[in-house]
Design a protein that fits this description.
- By secondary structure, this protein is α/β, with parallel strands linked by helices.
- An 8-stranded parallel beta barrel has the order 1-2-3-4-5-6-7-8, surrounded by 4 helices. It has a two-stranded antiparallel sheet with strand order 9-10.
- Strand 7, helix 9 and strand 8 form a beta-alpha-beta unit.
- Helix 1 runs parallel beside helix 10, helix 4 packs parallel to helix 5 and helix 7 runs parallel beside helix 8.
- The longest helix has 14 residues.
Amino acid sequence: MKAKPYVGVTGSISIREVSDVCTTFQSLGFSLASNSMPMIGFLVSYKTLNGIPNQNRRYPSIALLAPLLSVVPGNVFTTIHYNTREVKTLADQVSKLFEVIYEQRLCRAIQLNIPWPDLDQVETIKEKYPEIKIIFQASHNMLENTSPRALSLGIRIYGNTLSYVLIDPSGGRGDPFDIDRSLDIYHEINAECPELTVGFAGGFNGENTRSRLVELVTRTGERAFSIDAEGGLRDKITDRYGDDLLNIRKVREYLQAASISI
């Protein structure tokens, strides 16, 4: 059975932000029972996991991760978005990450922001944490250098370890995705991996989400896909990537536009 699609907001770093995002979800009728679940995503990297300073404002300190997850109500799908260059020890890193939050059932999914993670590492994660949904991020670098057909065949190798694939050429930068290109990828993945729920990310905000959803629904003939937003919901402080702050007004406008899916 395919995993239920979600509408995501990624990048909260404070209790206040988490509370505001979850309250907005609730006020607009999103729940685990709605057609598209509410998803809140938290960014973690190898650096933050190991207490190494990170200038990117979207990453909470690892000490705050469990408290942030603890205030998320049970009707919101909690996800950690993890990236690392130390790919050979990915499963060990995830185990370190889940030492506390898995035992407390604070997290329901992990998105692997890693180009083509080793299959044995992903299998180890799934074997150790069978209840955790794994989201495969098809990032800019992967999409740029791989045809839709080759991408779908590569994803198929992961078998039943994955629950979701997110087509994400933006990678949190707020750049709008190419709908034609993303739909080509979507259809190939659906054909090769029909058990997976596919999603789109890249530049979603309050101004474009409704029209983009209408086009996606029209051209796919369904609303069984996820969407996620990050960079388009933030206010820049400087032009440096990640030097920005979540804007709850932009979150509300985006979720109001996305609420046509529930």
